[in-house]
Amino acid sequence: NDGILHRIFLSADGSFHNVSTLDLYPGATDKNCTSTPVICNNRIYIGSFAKGYGYLSVIDLSSFTLRYRVRGNKSAEIKATPLVSPGGIYYMEDSETAAKGTLQTLYTPSAAKQFCLSSIVSGKDGTLYYSNDSGTLFAVREVTISSDRIPMAVPTSSTGTPKAEPTATPVIPKAKKIAK
Question: How far is it between the farthest Cα atoms of the chain?
Fold first, then answer.
């Protein structure tokens, strides 16, 4: 909760060495960080809060220095573990040469808005799953091509011959309320 990122190396004998720290917001008095960092492509990604805003920080793993940080919305602390993927979800794009970024909104629920401490999990088909403090489980995916149609049973004639396949409309899964 102090806004300090710690890097600790573990020796083969189980002892710690080369302990270092990085203050994510030097001089800020209202900083907080409960996010679990993610490491990808020699960078550390971590969410946090400082000076009244949520932030996503990008740290160079080798030098353990801040490359840049992206400011999110006011009073919107980023507490969950970032889901880093090449290429409410809020997101930013990053590359090995990027020196700045912009936080973009991918999805904001129209109902059941609430704080979110849950990490986002990606299914093998790219659907993103998470829940928030309203007790709602969200499944978010883009539905844009005909192969994303919801499967439907194909009606058959009395002789068992398939009739023409019915037309299905792409549907984005709706959020479901789950019991706490």
Answer: 78
Answer whether 85's CB lies under 8 Å from 127's CB. no
Residue 159 has pLDDT above 70, yes or no: no
Look up the pTM and report it.
0.62
Cα dihedral 151→157→162→168 (10° resolution): -30
Q: Are strands 38-40 and 16-23 parallel, antiparallel or unpaired?
A: unpaired
Whats the size of the chain, residue-wise?
A: 180
In whole angstroms, give the CA distance from residue 163 to residue 180: 44
Residue 45 burial (CB < 10 Å; 0-12/13-18/19+)? buried
- The rounded mean pLDDT for the chain is 79
What is the pLDDT at residue 156?
Answer: 43
Q: Which tokens belong to 159?
A: 């002789």
Query: Can you tell me the mean pLDDT for 123-128?
Result: 87
Per-residue tokens: 19: 């302990």
